[in-house]
Specification:
Radius of gyration of chain B: 21 Å
Helix content of chain B: 25-40%
Number of strands of chain B: 14
Distance between the termini of chain B: 33 Å
Structural class of chain B: alpha/beta
Strand order of the largest sheet of chain A: 4-3-6-1-2-5
Structural class of chain A: alpha/beta
Strand content of chain B: 15-25%
CATH topology of the largest domain in chain A: Rossmann fold
Number of helices of chain A: 5
Number of helices of chain B: 10
Distance between the termini of chain A: 20 Å
CATH class of the largest domain in chain A: Alpha Beta
CATH class of the largest domain in chain B: Alpha Beta
Helix content of chain A: 10-25%
Shape of chain B: globular
Strand order of the largest sheet of chain B: 3-4-5-6-9-10-11-12-13-14
Oligomer: heterodimer
Number of domains of chain B: 2
Largest sheet of chain B: 10 strands, mixed
Amino acid sequence: MLYPCTVLKNESVAPGVHLISFEKLFTFNAGQMVSISMSKNGPKRLYSIASGDSESILSVIFDIKPGGALTPVLAMLKPDDVIFCSKPQGSFTESVEPAFWIASGTGIAPFRSMFRSGLSNNKTLIHGGRFLHSFYFQNEFIIMKNNYIRCCTQETGPGIFEGRLTRYLSEISLPGPDFKYYLCGSAEMVVDTRDLIISRGVPFKNIISEIYF
Amino acid sequence: MESLFGKTLDQLTKIALDNGLPKFTGRQLTEWLYKKHVTSISDMTNIAKKGRERLEEKYTVGLSQPIKVQTSSDGTKKYLFTHGSKRFIEAAFIPDDDRATLCVSSQVGCKMGCLFCMTGKQGFQSHLTAGEILNQIRSLPERDQLTNVVYMGMGEPLDNPDEVMQSLEILTAGWGYGWSPKRITVSTIGIIPAMKRFLNESDCHLAISLHSPFEEERRKLMPVENVYHLHEVIATVKEWDWTRQRRISFEYIVFGGLNDTPRHINELVRILNGIKCRINLIRFHPIPDTPLHGTNEETLQYFKNRLNEKGVLCTIRASRGQDIYAACGLLSTKELLSHEQKDY
């Protein structure tokens, strides 16, 4: 079931990447997602919520898929336009244990939601991207200081780790067995990262993954 | 050039009309493609020569032969097909007495990332078109021996629903291959919206990858559990009538010390209560770098027997083609993709 929502804001956060914010009709837990469509029975896609659980709006981030059924249209939305949104769903939600939050690309969305919901105290956020502009919301995450790691594969910059996030993870010592690992992003990143940390002794039961499909 | 093979009657009729050919040419095309098995447009001799020439300017039949075959000691064969110029898919032909099953792929790679699956380790490269799915059947040397087709090869079929549904339409339509839907099984890990569409639009059998009746445990094995919860999948299944010819089965890879306990048996019985179904127990075929291992034979037999005693029909699926990596969960063309690493 989809519900009509009024669009409040459409921001370009990087080339080809948008953050749209709209009316919040239902409460949610940080890390959940919603289905979005342009009509009640039109094609719909799942998006992780990128806003905090106590905010009055609901935001999602997406990159425009050329030729896609939905994202090119979403990118054109203006305030007061109407979209259709489901109730929040999903269980990629936070626990209170210390954890790594590991994301690639727009997989940062659920972690931004958790961050803005006040859940970042004992967390380390590792974000992988191809370009310096791929680190969406870095101005917000920067207050996590040394617990915010950006891994860039195509460009270099101050405070940026050069290379894939899997390389970063292979070069650091991993903490004890109580640590959880939340992974969100492409199938390639999730599978590679999961294999790597399992090979380094992390029990697979400590790994919670969400893959964008 | 665009392929004609893999198109529906409606699509072929539109192509005929768009190219100035009579409407009935659409049906003629289906006969040449799906019944007479031609390999070139020029062989479609009941279509006017000028019409064929017009079609040949824009279209090709679009078949491709397997480029490699491996044969297992148990008779299973694994066929390698190209997808474009640099990607590959596999299909497994499994002869068994009077049955011969083909396990077809629906995607190059897979996005689902299940912890126990070799295909998942190569990530996702592409969806297959209906024509590419059907070409695995059409270009199989043993095509005429086939009794069953299962969509259990590379990829999650219901992550590619448009092309999978189109391929099923062509396989089962009278103008297509005319197969009974009872000879076809589509497997899914439980993508609920596409599963509902499949159940509404097709009469083919459904197989659901279950692997644990406990959601917290299942989500460590299968990331999709974070999106579509098992209890919602089961509730969806219960909305359909399974007491007639259409069958539903649940696939359950049995891992040692993980999902092979009496607690799991009891929970399986509880959640499947009221569904006329079968559980297929599958031996785990180890893949590189996996923290999982298969259960022992004694536990496997106990698991099967207890489920049967509790009224849930349960069988153990024979492992086939393990020596050529054609068995369940082992299909992969990752090694052939080394030039194509996705950045992240």
